[in-house]
Structures are given as structure tokens and as C-alpha cells.
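Lecture notes, part 5. Sequence design as translation. It can be helpful to think of inverse folding as translation between two languages: the language of shapes and the language of residues. The source text, in C-alpha cells, appears below.
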């Protein structure tokens, strides 16, 4: 029998990561447009949140693969079913790729890494420039994907009024 809601650990990870990703996007935008004395602090914060997100997404992927999760509604059209699965794969891929790109970018640029992490790639300024550009562009893709994900959740909760939004709701599940 399939569950009607995601496991509480999956829900906690989802909402914690959602908050951290939103914070990361705002910190990232502030960081590149702010050359004040707090610039260094923003970079450190960005690296710390990125590392936390990398660890959390690894745990989250393990949870997703090991715990049962609710199925999509039976009446969901095939194209929407495919879009839901593809968008989740994209989100998981971006949540994994973004911190790894940031880590590689910092390594290639010769910048210090948090917690004495080893360099992922050798010091190479051309590679740094490439990774920095990829990190920036994928941040836009991540932001757009988050907006689409939020829009789809709202459609399920407010228009379709099915159990999809309730299945990931934080805390106790609302009653029907």
C-alpha cells in the first residue's frame, strides 16, 4: 500500500532545503552586487550554506530512494505526469550540481574552501571562469525551476485540490 504523504523526514528535508535554497539565491544575488565590507561575510555564508545543501541533498536522495512516497494522482494526464517526474529530476540534479560547481569553481580559482575541504579540480583560471559562468547560469535555471515547482504545487493545492500539496505539507497534515 502506497502512503498518502511523504515520510516526516522527507518533509523536513524538503522544507529545510527550500528555505536554504531561497536564502542561497538571495545571498548569491547580494554577494555579486555588494562590494561593501560585508562582501567577504556574504561569500563565507554562501559557501557554508552551499556545503550544508550538498550534504542535505545527498541525505535527501538517499531518503527518496529508500522510503516509499505517495503516487501522483491517477487522473493526472500523461504529459503532466512526465513533466512532474522530469522537473523533480531537474531539481535534484541542480541541487547536487550547484554546490559541486561552486566547490569546483573555488578550487579552480585557488580560493580557500570551508572546513579545509580538498580541491575538486586543479588551480586553473580558465576553468574557474568557465565554472563561474556555469554556476551563475544554473542559478537562474534553479530559480526558474523553483518557481515552476511552486506554481505546480499551488495548482495542485488550489485548483485541482488533490492530495499532492498536502502530501509534502510541513507539520501535521491538514484534514480534508
Amino acid at each position: 500500500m502506497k502512503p498518502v504523504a511523504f515520510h516526516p523526514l522527507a518533509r523536513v528535508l524538503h522544507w529545510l532545503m527550500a528555505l536554504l535554497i531561497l536564502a542561497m539565491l538571495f545571498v548569491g544575488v547580494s554577494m555579486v552586487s555588494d562590494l561593501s565590507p560585508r562582501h567577504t561575510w556574504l561569500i563565507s555564508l554562501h559557501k557554508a550554506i552551499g556545503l550544508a545543501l550538498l550534504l542535505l541533498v545527498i541525505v535527501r536522495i538517499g531518503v527518496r530512494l529508500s522510503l516509499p512516497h505517495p503516487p501522483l494522482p491517477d487522473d493526472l494526464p500523461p504529459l503532466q505526469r512526465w513533466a512532474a517526474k522530469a522537473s523533480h529530476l531537474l531539481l535534484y540534479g541542480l541541487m547536487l550540481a550547484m554546490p559541486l560547481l561552486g566547490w569546483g569553481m573555488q578550487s579552480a580559482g585557488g580560493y580557500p574552501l570551508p572546513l579545509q575541504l580538498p580541491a575538486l579540480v586543479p588551480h586553473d583560471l580558465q576553468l574557474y571562469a568557465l565554472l563561474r559562468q556555469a554556476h551563475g547560469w544554473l542559478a537562474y535555471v534553479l530559480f526558474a525551476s523553483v518557481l515552476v515547482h511552486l506554481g505546480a504545487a499551488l495548482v495542485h493545492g488550489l485548483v485541482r485540490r488533490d492530495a499532492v500539496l498536502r502530501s509534502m505539507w510541513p507539520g501535521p497534515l491538514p484534514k480534508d
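The translated text above is only one of many valid answers, since several sequences can fold into similar shapes. Residues 8-167 form a domain with the Fumarate Reductase Cytochrome B subunit fold (CATH 1.20.950).
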